[in-house]
Amino acid sequence: MKKFNSNLTSPLIEDYILEKTFVEDKLVDEMHVYADSNEVPIIGPLVGKYLFQIAHITKAENIFEMGSGFGYSAYWFAKAFSGNGKVVCTDFSIEHKEAAENFFRKAGFENYLDFKSGNSLEILKESNEKYDIIFIDIDKEQYPDVIDLTYDKLNSNGLMIADNTLWYGRVIEEDALPSTKGIMEFNDMLSSDTRFITTIIPLRDGITLSYKKD
Ligand SMILES: C[S@@+](CC[C@H](N)C(=O)[O-])C[C@H]1O[C@@H](n2cnc3c(N)ncnc32)[C@H](O)[C@@H]1O
């Protein structure tokens, strides 16, 4: 299997965590092969298991994803649904939509998926619904733009979860890449945003969990 180490944590520690929290799932294995051969970046199994657990703990039934790729992260969320549940996936790519729909069909999860192609920010803006969880994995320079929008579209006590918030350690190197600036600004904004309780977990490439207080 492809390694999903980020180099933030010792690869041996990441392997150890994976071994101790491993979930056997043939479709996940298939998705790893698809991600590898099509060079699509995915959250990987460590973060996947974490999302699965959070969806269970919160009993989330209405989830919105910004930057869904071919549905790998969405699949981990959907695994926590028990009968009811919907994950709204959004991505620019039509090809990703087709692949996600195929994987969800294979799992018998087609009723859980609503994949909309287009700009995630625009789709969320136009949505009339409120969500239990909003997951962010779009281009990193756009991260600062999602906070207020996400706040408005979350249910009370909902969660905003963002991937790559340590950006392979670049956040402390402060390089000039727009993506690094985006992540750093996002982290700065959240650090003083009293509407949320926020933690950054150094799992894989850093995952931010922000709880909407009211
Ligand atoms: C890292 S991949 C997502 C991986 C996915 N979350 C997973 O782990 O399975 C990022 C995706 O975001 C999409 N993307 C980036 N910015 C976007 C935007 N503003 N609107 C829609 N899609 C976007 C890209 O097309 C790409 O497929």
Characterize the structure shown.
- This protein is α/β, with parallel strands linked by helices and about 210 residues long.
- The chain has a single domain (about 10-210), classed as Vaccinia Virus protein VP39 (Rossmann fold, 3-Layer(aba) Sandwich).
- The chain is about 45% helix and about 20% strand.
- It has nine helices and seven strands; from the N terminus they run αααβαβαβαβαβααββ.
- The chain has helices spanning about 10-20, 25-35, 45-60, 70-80, 95-105, 120-125, 145-155, 170-175, 180-190, and strands at about 60-65, 85-90, 115, 130-135, 155-165, 195-200, 205-210.
- It has a seven-stranded mixed β-sheet, with helices on both faces.
- It is globular.
- The N and C termini lie far apart (about 40 Å).
- The structure holds S-adenosylmethionine (SAM).
- S-adenosylmethionine (SAM) binds near residues 68, 96 and 137.
Any chance you could write out the topology, listing elements then pairs?
Layout: H1 11-20, H2 26-37, H3 44-58, E1 62-66, H4 72-78, E2 86-91, H5 94-107, E3 113-117, H6 120-126, E4 131-136, H7 146-153, E5 154-163, H8 170-173, H9 178-191, E6 196-201, E7 207-212
Parallel strand pairs: 1-2, 1-4, 2-3, 4-5
Antiparallel strand pairs: 5-7, 6-7
The structure holds S-adenosylmethionine.
